[in-house]
Amino acid sequence: MSQTFAQKALARASGVADPQPGQIVDAFPDVYMSHTASWRCIQTLKQLGTDKLYDRDRIAMVMDHLSPAYTAKTAADQRMCREFAERMGIKNFFDVDSGIAHIVLMERGIIRPGQLIIGTDSHSTIYGALGAFGTGVGFSEITAAWVTGKLWMRVPESLRIQLDGEFPAGTYAKDLMLYLIGKVGADGATYESVEFHGDLVGSLSVSERMTLANLGMEMGCKNAFIPPDQKTRDYLYAAGLSDDDIEEIQPDDDAVYRHRVDLDVSTLEPQIAAPHTVENVVGIGAVAGTKVDQVFVGSCANAKLDDLLIVADLLKGRRVAPGVRLIVTPASRMIMAHAGHEGALTTLLEAGAMLTNPGCGACAGNGGAMADGEVTLSTANRNFRGRMGSYDASIYLSSPATAAASAITGVITDPREIVR
Questions:
Q1: Is-same-fold flag (24-153; 271-417)?
Q2: Cα–Cα distance for residue pair 49/59, rounded to 1 Å
Q3: pLDDT (average), residues 363-383
Q4: Options 3.90.1180.10, 3.40.50.150, 3.30.499.10, 2.60.40.10; which CATH number does 271-417 get?
């Protein structure tokens, strides 16, 4: 029987030869990721009355959402996590200086093609950028996997998104995903495995693929998948892996999909998700000129090295508009170091940006709060009301290029208008 990626990945993880959409299987994840609130798992483990772990080497804990701690309670929770990791011999523990969990695990070679990864963050779909099955779960599910090694999962139906053409100037992977979310809807792919195919996908960098897989969650998907290729392998080699560590899974050519979306990106313009939902997407012309009080460049969607370089390139020799707060939060310490080596951090500081330590930052409500009536243009993946401070403030979402252009002018601006 022909199979989609999801069927093959869950067959591998469960030992069921031909799992069908809708079937429940007992799957054994390769990685269990928990973020800053890992203390919830630790407390649940205590309630279970056990300290026996199925496989400590599959556990990854990253203190990313609230870093560094800003209350005594947060500090105590993080200390609990540190002490637990040391006591239990958990080697994949990454403290508050490391960055966003997803990016850290990928750049350290912990995420590999074909794996099943569960994480306490809905945007665990990002792991599909490396050809893995990544999905978000709750803290109780993670704790159960700590103890039993397994988790029951329903095999999802699949959506094939065929992407062809080349991006026009000023348009990027973020614009594409905002457009698709607006087209498919926030619940248009609920509990589906989204597969991205086409000539465009093969031309994208791994970083751009991360943006696709990350934002797949905003269509409601269970997981997102980009077929691994030589670019994937080169990324994994750079992370310290060899061919012996890589087990790629590809869907069959005649696999059956519940539905399909075809798109040629050649005429796509920069996109904006307007308040207060990610699916409220318009072409940039519909909101151009909207005054912004703050611009945030960060999150697991768009704070990678190429994102920071795009922003720095547009800001070089220019200044952030008076009255605008530009906050830049690199996704990881490694990315921040590379950006410093490239001179991007100096450029950003000279332009008037504020640099924060690597982590989730304002995307997770850690800094960057707005007052009533203020507007932020953000490169993050969500713009829900109240996510960044006041419930009466507004968040618009864009690509890093649009964010940089808007920081320069003080209003939402088409990056194609900023001539370099």
A1: yes
A2: 19
A3: 93
A4: 3.30.499.10
